[in-house]
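ugh ok fine here u go
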Amino acid sequence: MSPQPNYRRVLLKISGEALMGSREYGLDFETVARIARDVSAVHRLGVEICLVIGGGNIFRGGSAGSGIERASADYMGMLATVINALAVQSMLESKGVHTRVQSAIPMATVCEPYIRRRAIRHMEKGRIVIFAAGTGNPFFTTDTAAALRAVEMDCDALLKGTQVDGVYSADPKKVKDAKRFDRLSYQEVLSRDLKVMDTSAIALARENEVPILVFSIHNPGAFADVVTGTGAYTIIGPERTVGSDRTVD
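structure:
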């Protein structure tokens, strides 16, 4: 008997960089296809899914420089997330998964505007919803957009696919003896300044008690493993449900 999912509805946050594969810029379509396979596998388990995808593989607003004002740069970054959302939508639909893209910046020619009740209805009908253009406002990251949409969609969990298989005490690619945490509280993430998501995203998840599960998006099948509780990941949740200082070597 195959493992059963632990969650009814989840939001998966994917960075734009995750879509690059081994490239230095843009989209690696083999990587996008593999991520689409992983998402469709979880969808087949009966889990309702929504996605937030970053745009850092194309343009990162906060670090634009070159005389571009921050607000304009952030809007440019939001447009990059729409490109990524359309790419992932196409890959999912090529696998027979009905998908809708909703943008916080209205652009009716290519996708729907963000409407909360419509998005919920799409998921109830078995469609995957991809939220693009962040929150629609400058000075907010797609991490914050992911936490916001997870709360608005009444998700049971927010899953963040990253470059490593959980939250570490330091960058494991730079620090050989960095410790991986099994469980953390929201407060521990903030007080230790662990670079998981920005502070506003963590604070929003904490206020609404949405657990955050951090795992490696690069391991094929990892999304399904985390949803069924069998994979390697770090769970961030309320103080009363997590154990302090538990680590995994």
